[in-house]
Amino acid sequence: MGSVLQLTDVSVVRDGNRILDRVSWEVQPTDRWVILGPNGAGKTTLLQVVSASIHATEGESILLGETVGKVDVFDLRPRIGFASSALARRIPADESVLDVVLTAAYSVTGRWNENYEDVDIRRARRVLAEWKLDHLAERRFGNLSDGEQKRVQIARSVMTDPELLLLDEPAASLDLGAREELVQLLGNYARSSEAPAMVMVTHHVEEIPPGFTHALLIADARVRAAGPIEDVITEPHLSEAFGLPLMVERSDDGRFAARAA
Ligand SMILES: Nc1ncnc2c1ncn2[C@@H]1O[C@H](COP(=O)(O)OP(=O)(O)OP(=O)(O)O)[C@@H](O)[C@H]1O
């Protein structure tokens, strides 16, 4: 199978500013990428390009073998799973957890009159169990804890069996226990041969799940380093990208930690 995504010299210009500047990047089906960079670096903009949510101003984007601009994005988007708090805000608070996941099969938020097949309901329950949510299936989404809501967002994004899974800061705002639970679940998922290619944006190296294979470091709209995770998450690269001297450690289980030197 070919690349899951291939960007060549992609730029995004807004209000005369290059908020992505000549980004070239390739992701293979078995890759699990983390995107790291300071506030305002362009991480969310990059995810929007690779989710076919926005068009690049310049350059070529090939997503799942299709050249963006030559294909109907409505055919492409269902093949890409995307979890972000911006999307989660569109989920009605009184929706049941089961329905939040089930409605992904129809690319809608908020259950209306769709008739779901038994096969969809069985799959939704299986996905809920995978993300340790089966006991919450009948609860209302709005009443869940932050950690539970994050897991529901991810469960929803994998419901359609996507070929590419994008996660925008899945651990943001979580307490230590909820973060650790999520990192472990994401790590298990990343190591599964059934999982699609994954791209996760984060601000913190502590949130990188073991099993992630590659990293892309972005600062001031430009890629500073990209490649195998051990080559990219290094003291020199992180210090340069974040603009201060940093110490970086990696423990035997593959987890990273960073602090000012
Ligand atoms: N529609 C827009 N019009 C003008 N500027 C924009 C637009 N969208 C984003 N920007 C700017 O582009 C830059 C990159 O934004 P982006 O959200 O991609 O960064 P980020 O790395 O995700 O930041 P953060 O870590 O703070 O979430 C920021 O300076 C932002 O203000």
Summarize the structure.
This protein has 261 residues and is α/β, with parallel strands linked by helices. The protein has nine helices and twelve strands. The strands form three sheets. It has a six-stranded mixed β-sheet with strand order 6-7-8-3-9-10, sandwiched between helices. A four-stranded antiparallel β-sheet has the order 2-1-4-5, covered by helices on one side.
Q: Would you write up a description of this structure?
A:
Helix content is 29%, strand content 28%. By secondary structure, the protein is of the alpha/beta class. The protein has one domain (5-260): P-loop containing nucleotide triphosphate hydrolases (Rossmann fold). The strands form 3 sheets. Strands 6-7-8-3-9-10 form a 6-stranded mixed beta sheet, sandwiched between helices. Strand 1 (5-14) and strand 2 form a beta hairpin. The radius of gyration is 18 Å and the shape is globular. Bound molecules: adenosine-5'-triphosphate. Adenosine-5'-triphosphate is lined by residues 14-15, 19, 37, 39-45. Residues 5-245 form the ABC transporter domain. InterPro entries: AAA+_ATPase, ABC_transporter-like_ATP-bd, Metal_Ion_Import_ABC, P-loop_NTPase.
